[in-house]
Specification:
Blueprint lengths: L11 E4 L3 H14 L2 E7 L13 E5 L11 H10 L4 E3 L9 H9 L3 E2 L4 H8 L1 H10 L15 H11 L3 E5 L8 E4 L2 H19 L4 E5 L5 E9 L5 E13 L2 E7 L8 H17 L5 E8 L5 E7 L6 H8 L3 H9 L17 E8 L11 E2 L2 E4 L5 E5 L6 E2 L6 E9 L2 H13 L1 E4 L5 H9 L1 H5 L6 H5 L11 H15 L3
Parallel strand pairs: 1-2, 1-4, 2-3, 4-5
Antiparallel strand pairs: 6-7, 6-8, 9-10, 9-12, 10-11, 11-14, 12-13, 14-19, 15-18, 16-20, 17-19
């Protein structure tokens, strides 16, 4: 399913990001005939994404605050380089409404939703209120921040334990704490508030009913500037550590063949997007209980890390569509029924972290090799000499498999993990292998409690078989030489 391009004006697009997502956006720009302008900083003068860009711009500085988060500097780059549009990728300024507004006020396209959608959906209390007004089911709890611990205890008593103390702003698993009793609310309220204030500049908290053993289901949506909103089916993102995803798959094995439930979830996501007049790619996230009742969690007003698995099952290029939408172009999607899905896709996030503690493990890449089966996609930012520092997210790549059915996608992913060799870094590849071999995962019956309850990290082997590793590397090299 390909997007037909016609009469596309050649535009200059600044990619205000780094790593694999910057490479991904640059390739989409080139496909559309646009000029991809990349950023390099003092911290990464030889960044891998630059080879996919047509032009490079130096952003002076070595910290995020000095570079990718510096709105003033990026706006200066936009002005100096006659930029027509800015794609923020994910993270950094991708969900910064003030940045989006500053660009649109200057007549520059922000390749994402309009600023008001970012503002409304970026605040958990405001987005929850909008969802309720739109008839979208929400988790029982407060629509507005609770001002005191006493009020939090009162609300918790009304909706019943366990409850979740949750930051009004932010995401990524920070500013969230489960409480099973009144005493735990007393003990945790101030601590979660301080964590939220430090992380997001806002210490306000919500109190929500905690859904036990839930599934994290999200729906990919895409909208244009003419009021058309489409969904591209759901993803299951329940394999998480510290509320952060590490494995995602589409479609959801929990929803399975229940197409009525699938339609209900996806139509609900479209309803919410229409309520906020959405006009780009975005993701509506739900929490689904064991009884398959689902509730609105939040909306990510940007492209998601895991968007490739949706692309694999639908044949759509979501980044290309984002760019077209931002410039008011026709997406050439006749109807929702025109969007179909085929097969199953899985993504493993490859991170520079200890596979047992799952904590970041910075280091330098001394080399890497790949030997993948058919049906594998590897979106990455790896190169020999790459320094993975504490300044950036530890994710260095995304391994994506595609199979006609789920069992095939699992098998291909397991083989691909055996064929990915990264030297110089500790990575979570051994953890992924344990999970892919686990009967619970193979049967697709896991929930967000998987890591905490099944504890696959405790089965990770810590002693490397170097003889076997070198034999595999030698085999890869021999194949490349045609031997």
């Amino acid at each position: 399913m390909n997007i037909r391009l016609k009469d596309c004006k050649r535009r200059r697009i600044l990619i205000a990001n780094r790593g694999e997502i910057a490479s991904r956006v640059a390739r989409a720009c080139r496909e559309l005939g646009h000029v991809a302008v990349g950023i390099w900083t003092d911290n990464e003068p030889n960044a891998a994404h630059l080879e996919f860009c047509d032009e490079w711009v130096h952003l002076e500085g070595s910290t995020n605050a000095e570079t990718y988060l510096n709105v003033e500097k990026i706006l200066k780059v936009v002005e100096d380089n006659k930029i027509d549009g800015v794609h923020p990728g994910y993270g950094f300024l991708s969900e910064n409404g003030a940045f989006a507004k500053a660009l649109t006020d200057k007549g520059i396209a922000f390749i994402g939703p309009h600023p008001e959608a970012i503002r409304v959906m970026g605040d958990k209390a405001t987005s929850k209120a909008l969802a309720k007004e739109a008839g979208v089911p929400v988790v029982p709890g407060t629509a507005e921040a609770v001002p005191t611990v006493e009020k939090a205890i009162e609300v918790a008593g009304e909706i019943g334990y366990p409850v979740l103390l949750k930051a009004v702003a932010g995401g990524g698993g920070r500013g969230m704490r489960a409480c099973n009793s009144e005493q735990e609310v007393k003990d945790q309220f101030e601590a979660v508030g301080r964590e939220s204030l430090a992380a997001f500049g806002n210490g306000d908290l919500l109190v929500e009913k905690l859904i036990v053993n839930p599934h994290h289901i999200e729906v990919q949506i895409l909208a244009d500037k003419n009021g058309n909103v489409f969904h591209f089916f759901e993803r299951e993102c329940s394999i998480q550590r510290r509320h952060q995803k590490i494995i995602e798959e589409a479609p959801s094995p929990f929803i399975g063949e229940d197409d009525e439930l699938r339609k209900n979830v996806c139509d609900t996501a479209v309803k919410l997007a229409k309520a906020v007049n959405y006009d780009s790619a975005g993701t509506v996230e739900f929490i689904m209980g064991e009884d398959k009742k689902f509730y609105f969690l939040e909306m990510n007003t940007r492209i998601q890390v895991e968007h490739p698995i949706t692309e694999e099952i639908t044949g759509m290029d979501l980044i290309v569509c984002m760019i077209q939408s931002a410039f008011g172009e026709d997406l050439q999607i006749p109807s929702q029924e025109w969007i179909t899905r085929t097969g199953h896709s899985i993504e493993c996030r490859i991170c520079a972290e200890d596979p047992i503690t799952m904590l970041p493990a910075p280091g330098s890449v001394t080399g890497f090799e790949t030997n993948f089966p058919q049906g594998i996609r590897f979106d990455h930012c790896l190169y020999r000499g790459l320094e993975v520092t504490p300044d950036f997210d530890p994710m260095v790549g995304k391994l994506i498999s595609k199979g006609l059915v789920r069992d095939v996608a699992v098998r291909k992913m397991r083989a691909a993990l055996d064929g990915l060799y990264i030297e110089g870094l500790k990575t979570n590849i051994p953890l992924h292998k344990v999970i892919l071999d686990d009967p619970v995962f193979k049967e697709g019956i896991y929930s967000t409690s998987y890591i905490g309850e099944v504890k696959p990290q405790e089965r990770v082997e810590t002693d490397l078989d170097y003889v076997s590793l070198y034999k595999k590397l030698a085999t890869v090299e021999a194949r490349r030489m045609g031997l």
